[in-house]
Amino acid sequence: MFRKVTLExxxxxxxxxxxxxxxxxTGKVIWEGKKYVAKPGRYEWTIPKEKIDELNSAIDKFxxxxxxxxxxxGSKTDFPSVITSVLFDNGYYRKINHYLGDTLxxxxxxxxxxxxxxxxxxxxxxxxxxxETMARKASNIFLRYPCCPYYWGISPQFDDRQGGVSSQAxxxxxxxxxxxxxxxxxFNKVWTERYTRRNNREER
Length: 204
Hints:
CATH architecture of the largest domain: 2-Layer Sandwich
Strand content: 15-25%
CATH superfamily of the largest domain: Mago nashi
Radius of gyration: 22 Å
Strand order of the largest sheet: 4-3-2-1-6-7
CATH class of the largest domain: Alpha Beta
Structural class: alpha+beta
Shape: globular
Number of helices: 7
């Protein structure tokens, strides 16, 4: 049985969600959102007893006390870490620092980390509702495409007022799709298709 469980996701070379949660044996959850999350700051809520039992079961099934962190091959750079800890009711304490650039023997640790998030109910705090997610990603897109003058209408031939393609000319769903996967090739395809349609309209 656990007395306290924590999970922390750290920064990466990008916009990975950065936050920390703490769950105690009464079901109290403390959220500290730091960067790239829907709800930054501190929030508290309580999960029911069945969720507490579920978390105890997940800890036992995973074998947190005796888990051996064995890497294979080399590590990749620029990935975040997931740091978990469990304080058991007998006073035994353990922390595991999982660098996501490491290749492990299996995915059990990642699945356990995701299970903590699921049981704690962090989804809306990380990603928000679908509309909140799209709005946040659209507002952050300047950070992803700072060097695309044709995209933002800086270059006159692609200005919105001339029917070109810029942030306002591209549908929000296009922004959402491109932003989500950082797909520069896909972005250029969207831009080319829109620009081609504009030229076709002018030739008629």
